[in-house]
């Protein structure tokens, strides 16, 4: 079973005759015998259709073989999240690598994507395995519990696990119209039970 | 006279009458003591031909100087009689007692020429040798890969430098898939083999 270990801004993927899927072009070095092949986002024809409609641009490659692959992109911090028969939603451009036991699916994020100008889809990772996500600065995990909703800026939201419902709060008022706004037009509000991951930089 | 890391992006160098420090021009952040900065003239022509030149300055006198550049990560590499090959762009500072020379990467003739052109790396690297320390710039910090006989593949954009008796070779695996835009993004790789250390950065950004 491939093992992912995060070392600050570099991810070590130890392969033992199996494979991991990683962001296209994210290999910085490798030892051993490893092949790199383009992989589609997975999920077959239906998923491909959804990607086409949603404009989701996740492009992955498969790293197969035995050895250690060093993965990194744009000097972003790397965090490995362990999923055991679980589900996590991640902003697509923040996925660095996933192990074999996980499936990727595209999900429409509706209004949120439109307001934040990031396209209308996010990626859902389901199954058992490890998922490496990258963030501009160290990732921060914030808990959401019933009765304790969490509000975050859409530009810092990276990923979320657990059962949470998301809604959008608009901060637009007459002040925004006259140019005296705070720069916080929209916020994401999470309710339920789970963990939300944010990065300390706005995209 | 090893450089002292102030944080991951700034180093402090002690400067004495015997030990001057050469640094990238404009990389001084602050200093104390009695230090003067003098631009270094290049041997005319050399830099123009190889493209492997960088405006350097000498820090002389006595005191300590802080160096940093554009918020890039700084890695201090200590040389004890061995040599380090690194691109001139990446050198932040080094002890003046170290010898630098410009050389062709890999004695491969046409092959290395192709490599330089393909990877945008240029044909020449700077070789630093002697006893002293070098501060090397990188995007995202470097990590060393120790080699003792085996081969590692390195992304040309992420390659920072190497020291020791290493052979650097460009391998390409361009196939039909790359031509139709379905490549894995790893069409070109540097295959490094031998005994020594390769320095790799956590990003594919060149500067």
Automatic annotation (TrEMBL), chain A:
SUPFAM superfamilies in alphabetical order:
TRAP-like (SSF51219)
Domain of life, per the record?
A: Bacteria
Q: Which InterPro entries match?
A: AIM24 (IPR002838), AIM24_sf (IPR036983), Trp_RNA-bd_attenuator-like_dom (IPR016031)
Q: What is this protein called?
A: AIM24 family protein
> Which species does the entry assign this protein to?
Cellulomonas rhizosphaerae
From TrEMBL, chain B:
Question: Which organism is this protein's natural source?
Answer: Cellulomonas rhizosphaerae
Indicate what this protein is called per its UniProt record: AIM24 family protein
Q: What Pfam families has UniProt attached to this entry?
A: AIM24 (PF01987)
What InterPro entries does the annotation carry?
AIM24, AIM24_sf, Trp_RNA-bd_attenuator-like_dom
UniProt xrefs under PANTHER family: ALTERED INHERITANCE OF MITOCHONDRIA PROTEIN 24, MITOCHONDRIAL
